[in-house]
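ok so i was messing around last nite and threw this chain in just to see what happens. nothing serious, just curious
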Amino acid sequence: AMLVNKFPGDEKDTRDVPIGLLDTVTLMQLALERCATARCGVELMGELAEKFGFVPTPGEPTLGSVRGQTAWDDAGEAYTLADSKGEAWVF
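result:
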């Protein structure tokens, strides 16, 4: 899955990247609703991000430059999911 897709309907974003539908808040909410374990949550979030596209938290990506070429910079996101059995996973 591409990690910096664009939001649906964002006419200002002219990048040639896929449209993403799910942000981290939505992914975490779906995992909390559907899963009882950290492993299930991380697997579900990954599957949904690959299927429906992932977008960073709104307002997070910024226009930057790498070796003279335009690039979109993102602070990066990582979420730790832990459960009552003591298992923890990072998404």
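not much to say yet. The chain is about 30% helix and 20% strand.
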